[in-house]
Design a protein that fits this description.
Helices cover 57% and strands 7% of the residues. With 209 residues, it is mainly alpha-helical. Strands 1-2 form a two-stranded antiparallel ribbon. The longest helix is centred in the C-terminal third of the chain and has 23 residues.
């Protein structure tokens, strides 16, 4: 297995770009279903007791659906999955808007309006699981900030977390985003890559052209 270095390799590309590149090259992208959430629970499960409970019971999406039905807001499973996963990686409203655009592109016959998206996000942010995920991100921000971290695939990061600073003259608040989102994504992806590599080797299906 070859592990790329730097931001211009397929390992860190968005899925849409990676799939397009693989199709051109004649490669196939392989994923493990639900891998990232299980890795996150294995690493940081003590911070995610409710998520762990629903994943173990297989009731995560039905739990979300019940909350949306109770609030009288439409439930769209594919959009909910995208928002949930983005939040696990530390994403927020920009990621939700991107998920919204993607959903509408795939469902032109029944697009979700901007007003409906606002209601969907409002309900999501009121859930205990959302608060757990944001709490985990805050914990990782404090635990990893200004440290060096090497993931399983050998990539080393100097972690810079989110930091808010206020201009003394203008009073304006600035946010230094750092690279924590990239680091969390790399940690989860590196475990998936390692497990896939192991499964390929065990199955004796590793082909080198």
């Amino acid at each position: 297995r070859v592990y790329g270095r730097g931001v211009d390799n397929l390992f860190y590309c968005r899925k849409q770009m990676r799939l397009a590149a693989f199709e051109t090259l004649g490669f196939q992208d392989v994923d493990i279903s639900g891998c990232h959430v299980h890795v996150a629970l294995g690493l940081w499960g003590e911070h995610l007791p409710l998520l762990e409970q629903h994943v173990a019971k297989g009731s995560l999406w039905s739990h979300y659906e019940a909350l949306y039905n109770a609030a009288g807001v439409p439930f769209h499973k594919s959009l909910m999955k995208a928002m949930h996963h983005a939040t696990l990686l530390g994403g927020g409203i920009n990621a939700y808007r991107e998920a919204h655009r993607s959903y509408n592109n795939h469902h032109p016959e029944a697009p979700i309006t901007g007003d409906t998206l606002e209601r969907i996000v409002e309900v999501f942010k009121s859930t205990d699981i959302y608060k757990e995920l944001k709490g985990l991100f805050n914990y990782l921000d404090k635990a990893y900030h200004n440290t060096s971290l090497t993931v399983l695939t050998g990539e080393t990061f100097h972690v810079k977390g989110y930091r808010r600073r206020k201009d003394k003259k203008t009073g304006k608040v600035y946010v230094d985003e750092g690279n924590l989102l990239t680091v969390i994504s790399a940690i989860l992806q590196s475990f998936e890559v390692a497990m896939l590599s192991y499964l390929i080797l065990r199955a004796n299906q590793l082909f080198i052209p």
